[in-house]
Amino acid sequence: MPPIPSHRPLPRRLRAAITALALTTAAWASAHAQAALPPEVSAALARARLPADSVVAWVADAEGRQPPRVAWRAQVQVNPASVMKLVTTYAALDLLGPAYSWPTQVFVEGAVREGTLYGNLHIRGQGDPKLVSERLWLLLRRVQGLGIRSITGDIVLDRTAFELPPHDAAAFDGDPTRPYNAAADALLVNYRSIVMTFTPDRTSGVATIQYEPPLAGVQLPATVPLGLEPCADWRGTLGADFSDPARIRFGGVYPATCGERAWPVAPMDPDGFAARAIEGLWREAGGQLRGTVRQGQVPAGLKPAFEVASPALAEVVRDVNKFSNNVMAQQLFLTLSLAQRGRGTPDASRDVVRQWWASRMGPAEPPPVIDNGSGLSRNSRISAQAMGRMLQSAWLSPVMPDLAASLPIAGVDGTARRSRAQGAAHLKTGSLRDVAGVAGYVHAASGRRYVLVIIANHPSASASALRPAIDALVDWTARE
Known about the structure:
Layout: H1 12-31, H2 39-47, E1 55-61, E2 70-72, E3 77-78, H3 85-96, E4 103-113, E5 116-124, H4 133-145, E6 150-151, E7 155-158, E8 194-201, E9 206-212, E10 223-227, H5 234-238, E11 240-241, E12 249-250, E13 254-255, E14 261-265, H6 270-284, E15 288-289, E16 293-295, E17 306-309, H7 313-323, H8 326-341, H9 346-361, E18 382-383, H10 384-395, H11 400-406, E19 424-432, E20 435-443, E21 449-457, H12 463-479
Parallel strand pairs: 5-6, 5-7, 6-15, 7-16, 10-13
Antiparallel strand pairs: 1-2, 1-21, 3-18, 4-5, 4-17, 8-9, 8-14, 9-10, 11-12, 19-20, 20-21
Helix pairs in contact: 2-12, 3-7, 3-8, 4-6, 7-11, 8-9
């Protein structure tokens, strides 16, 4: 395993600038704590029936050279939903560096003769957030490149890099099959999700189904009948039943008018998913296995035969923020303590973030309440001012280009593609039941950059309800 980058303090001049920014901004925010929302934003909130006192907002020069233009209820702590991913990704870029990568190690225990490993194959995960099917297939092909086509023993999966409490995938919203409810894992395979691709064949009257990755020991129907139903609720029309971990059933039909569609699903046996996927891919690649795929630890003193590296952190952060990938964000969060303390745990990572926050933000801004790093939580809390000041700190930091480039472009891509704002903006979105908001950077007509934060916590808050107010605030900021 390559050495883990250590945290290096910022240069003295930059530290002084950030400290001055912290104190000055705090004073400005206090003096303008109830600066009015722009009229067009207030009007959009009224149309959406969102009371102004359910919203927090903060708009300020990205370099902190002038008082905030908006500081509406800016010190009130609110649930930010996935906007919290900005804290996780900035901390990861700052502490680990944009080039950081996660190794997945492979160990051969036993002798290899005439294509057969007389012993066990060990795979040790180190938290790779992007060990998708294609990369796992390449890893297994490298195993075969060692001359191994058959294994007499077991494939042993070492997932001990993370130490996690039991996870109930149904606890958040009652739907454990949603991929966003998947838990982190030191050996996270394909985001703990299977992708089912339906392709209609009108000649035969069925839709063929492709599964990625293939899951060993799971009955997967190859087809489902076509129907004439509208495509609007095609998933409901399929009548899918995922209650049996060893079998997927479809009791309905697939609408022929849908064309080809993909449906990612988190199976009902999340802890067994990696074992089923690895065995399925190994056998699909022509490999033989006499034993089983099981959990275990790599024997002490056994050296890796090879390791494969994940994409760089800068690329991973882009996926996390552009598409608001919860389980990848949790992997980053746990990696913060894995890198510093040798084992990734939620409590240790919260402690790492608190220390990092204090070093970057100083005493003027209390740290956020961070749960799992993804924002998929009812307990997370941060103020608009704290989020805005953190984004100002990021703007002055060496990792600014990587963080800014990871944010969805308003009206163009990622989770912000539905925005109708005319102003140029890079914004991280967040949405839960009763929560909606964005935070990021706006490019004004003058050429100046601004930090923008707006979050609503209210029973009527939703991404669609708040979007006109967000667009109005972006355009108002861009016009300067």
